[in-house]
């Protein structure tokens, strides 16, 4: 793994936007999604699109080091903030992963006019959304890569949710209490996760942590972050029902995880429970925060899989 890059990101080809997805404007049900879009360089032929879905407690900012190299390989990159995170709105409802996937599908196909099957890449909570996207919109996906999460509805999830390392699952499930205890201490709370789960400690700088904490401390930000976890019971039901009614997902799937991460999350078994075709890639030199701890390794793994299914 090469040294971590600390120089400014060249975002000259990035386009930032925000679109209305659903709900009445200025009500608790309004859903607007913010996103970053980056096309390939002008002289590079476009191969297709890659949708990058962030995790908790992050935003599309987590992909800041990989957007350019992925686009330079010929892909149109779309990196949104999912509902309730970052610069997107903070609605009161809709945090089951099937709904969150539907939000992103509408963003791509209605607003950004994506017309061909996309490669979907999800990390952490984004991995759960990526699976829901593959299950709900398999005809619109060329491949799906996800990891660093126990997928609700699998045996890995049932084992992981009660493990000591998943204490935050139970904490986040409590009504109101997490919001009450974390308010004013957002940076300290989030720092715990970055330090405990990461192996390349230089990957998340204090500037990066300030960004994530500021986004999380917005009005409704922490509530939405915790609501993503509070919807896990519904996600279990949805994923089990899909498997029972439709069988294993036929979309080619890559389990993408950090080599130094938690063993249970590196096990491809949960992929085989839900998919017919499963590969795995363990990115060297990093723990949980793969795209930030080893951007080059993340890009290499994503491109190898995407090019194989383009």
Question: Explain this structure to me?
Answer:
Helix content is 41%, strand content 17%. The longest helix is centred in the middle third of the chain and has 15 residues, at 97-111. An 8-stranded mixed β-sheet has the order 1-2-4-3-5-6-7-8. The chain is built from 14 helices and 8 strands. It has 310 residues and is an alpha/beta fold. Helix 2 (97-111) packs across helix 3 (125-136) and helix 7 (186-197) packs across helix 8 (206-216).
Quick take:
With 310 residues, this protein is α/β, with parallel strands linked by helices. Helices cover 41% and strands 17% of the residues.
What is the element layout, followed by pairings?
Blueprint: E1 15-22, E2 31-38, E3 48-53, H1 67-72, E4 75-80, H2 97-111, E5 118-123, H3 125-136, E6 141-147, H4 155-160, H5 167-173, H6 177-182, H7 186-197, H8 206-216, H9 221-230, H10 232-246, E7 253-258, H11 263-266, H12 269-274, E8 278-283, H13 290-293, H14 295-308
Parallel strand pairs: 3-4, 3-5, 5-6, 6-7, 7-8
Antiparallel strand pairs: 1-2, 2-4
Helix pairs in contact: 2-3, 7-8
